[in-house]
Amino acid sequence: QVQLVESGGGLVQAGGSLKLSCAAFGSDFFINVMGWYRQAPGKQRELVATITNDGDTKYSDSVKGRSTISRDNAKNTVYLQMNVLNAEDTGVYYCNAEGDRGIWYRVSFEVWGQGTLVTVSS
Q: Which among 20, 42, 50, 52 could bridge 35 via Cys, Cβ 3.0 to 4.6 Å?
């Protein structure tokens, strides 16, 4: 079983910055892609950014240029640095990880974190 633990959410003023962290815990697993998604009130969950094990990144247009996703493979941890925050960045941010696990044979998995709330005040 692989579990994700997120941290770093909170209340921030518009124009400010925030850094989210997400660590994966478990045994005998390898993560290919880690990412962040968010869900604003009354809206569907949407992609924010993803990063592969090789460091390839992808960003949504809404955060591109003012956010940076990074990863520490040794710690199985992904970070999301967000700058110049605005009200549209408010929402619950979910960490996601896809990979495989197992000793004798590998089984693919996808897990989600419990979510961390980010509130941007104007």
A: 50
Q: Which amino acid is at 26?
A: G
How would residue 121 be classed by pLDDT, with cut points 50, 70 and 90? very high
For 90-120, what is each residue's pLDDT tens digit? 999 999 999 999 988 899 999 999 999 999 9
DSSP the chain: --EEEEE--EEEETT--EEEEEEEE-SSEEEEEEEEEEE-TTS--EEEEEEETT--EEE-TTTTTTEEEEEEGGGTEEEEEE-S--GGG-EEEEEEEEEEE-SSS-EEEEEE---EEEEEE-
Question: Rounded distance, CA 46 to CA 31, Å?
Answer: 21
